[in-house]
Amino acid sequence: MTALRAVVCGLIAGMLVSLYRQGIDAGTRVARWAYAWIGIHPVWVALWAAVVVLAALLVAALVRFEPMAGGSGIPQVEGVVLRGMRMRWWSVLIVRYVGGLLCGMFGLSLGREGPSIQIGAASSQAVGKGMRRRGIEANYLVTAGAAAGLSAAFNAPLSGMMFALEEVHRSFSPMILLSATAASLSADFVSKY
User: Would you state the torsion angle of the CA atoms of residues 141, 143, 144, 147, taken in this order, to the nearest 10 degrees?
Assistant: First the structure.
């Protein structure tokens, strides 16, 4: 039954991470266009700089609102799974999306690995709560979501599975492997199609 729940987590994480990737790509296209346009029309540099400062202030306010969405996201997921830290899944998703899209629009360096892992973990935490899963099974679903996020970010399901075993749990467990495999494969399927 855990594998079926992990498939649901993988499908949702795959959709959310695919949307995140598309948003970052669209933001990067906007940044390339804007910087090329400003190169031709340098009179707009001051206005662009003001907009960049406003965006930076908004991103800083978002991270103050949800500190778990700051940084790469990987240590936060490990803290939730291994150390019992609490993650407000809904605010993590909002901050990750809005902050990531804003940063992408201004051409800021933004990796997709950590945010995708945290998006997968947060969405799987929501699925687990919706299915009334608690304790160790809830942790398995968060781990599966993290694996699905990595899988969807790079179309690499094996990397997602290994990430769950080596990085998050640092041990082998058949349940972790089964959950991570089911979620990673379903997320990879969604992100490819």
Answer: 160
What distance lies between CA 124 and its chain's CA centroid?
11
The pLDDT-based confidence of 1 (bands split at 50, 70, 90) is low
In the chain, how long is the greatest CA-to-CA distance? 61
- Do residues 76 and 110 touch, judged by C-beta distance below 8 A? no
End-to-end CA distance of the chain: 25
Gap between the Cα atoms of 163 and 157, Å rounded: 10
Domain ranges of the chain: 2-192
Give residue 98's identity as a one-letter amino acid code: V
Spatial CA neighbour of 192 closest among 10, 9, 8: 10
The pLDDT > 70 percentage for the chain reads 99
Q: What angle do CA 115, 125, 55 make, to 5 degrees?
A: 35
In whole angstroms, give the CA distance from residue 113 to residue 73.
9
Q: Which two tokens stand for residue 140?
A: 């398995």
Q: What would the pLDDT profile of 158-167 be if each residue is shown by its tens digit?
A: 999 999 988 8
The CATH H-level (homologous superfamily) assignment of domain 2-192 is: Clc chloride channel (1.10.3080.10)
Ramachandran angles phi, psi of 90, nearest 5°: -65, -40
pTM: 0.91
Residue 158 corresponds to which tokens in the numbers above? Answer: 């094996």
